[in-house]
């Protein structure tokens, strides 16, 4: 399983993913699910992947190959030189379509699931911060003011806190805390989501990463946040009005 | 969809269910999912149902018919005269089996899902408070000290708070608050779970219901709890240590 969450607020973008994958309960591994691409000062993009790992790795390979090719032939279109974030989402969607077309029927013949989804979040100079969710069919939706966050993978455990906190006006600081708390709840309730975590934060109009870091299981800041949240929930719960009698 | 949660702590049993059912997004209705049975002073039992409504209503009809028949012929075994709660769970499981046997294949031929699950919680004189989860196949598991609560239906949104709060030593008061908070989170995140709610509380060795009530949408106590919890979460969130810089 996987849990990835991306938030678009007025101040910018926050992306967080876990690193656990499993093919059955007895085949657990660790794979990075967040990937960053940037032309510092011009654009910064984070991709996060869930679903069939061979499909998403294939998509990532296609995107990377195009970027390499464009160094030799600048005519090759890539997510780093395309005119808009919307076009970048299309390029990722096209790569998804190509991978699904190549492998989906044979994967399904084996009784496995080929579904995958990808979040792409970023900003290019001249545009606004954008966040898209790309489906297996290559189609995609964009986060709006009404729905300023997307989750892929095991999304339910960590959704209530996002529903309560995330609005378009939420600060980047609070959005970062909220995704970390959301991940903390998910880690507690689902064994197939696991540390370490990959966090990226893109501040509006910086066209670079403010944060691009791996949070290991022994990270003191994350542990402090997790313990503080536990204590706050416990205290809040204790202070609730009585309901019996 | 449905959300039912039942808790077994040292002090007794707490059961809470919503009332919304849906056959597709455009066919929403309200059905009671909690049903109580008692011989005051001897036993008190709550059943909660999720899944295919025709199946669970059929199970309930079989249990009710047996109770009626036993008034004429005391030899007829029912959940109200059987020797143990374990046997009561078996009786419910047998009724589930009978209903699945009668309709499952034709339901599935129509492309619908016949799965259902039932929680049965109660205590009879001479026994301990017991909580069982009965599956579609009629088999069942019992809640233990390690896992003192069961959820059926839309369980994920409301699980984190239960994971944090519910232990065998949790008071009946706190267990009641916890299931209400768990339901509140679920109501916020899933439209197919809806008010009103049915709450029952069985105190250990009372062999009767301490609480057996319907909580309507305008219930002031529940609204106060919901608002207090929102405020506590917001306050707890605001007080979290900073993570950026």
From TrEMBL, chains A, B:
GO cellular component terms listed in the entry, alphabetical order: proteasome core complex
Highest taxon, organism lineage: Bacteria
GO BP: proteolysis involved in protein catabolic process
Entry keyword set: Proteasome
Pfam family membership, one: Proteasome
Signal peptide: none
Name of the protein this chain belongs to: 20S proteasome A and B subunits
Organism: Sphingobium chlorophenolicum L-1
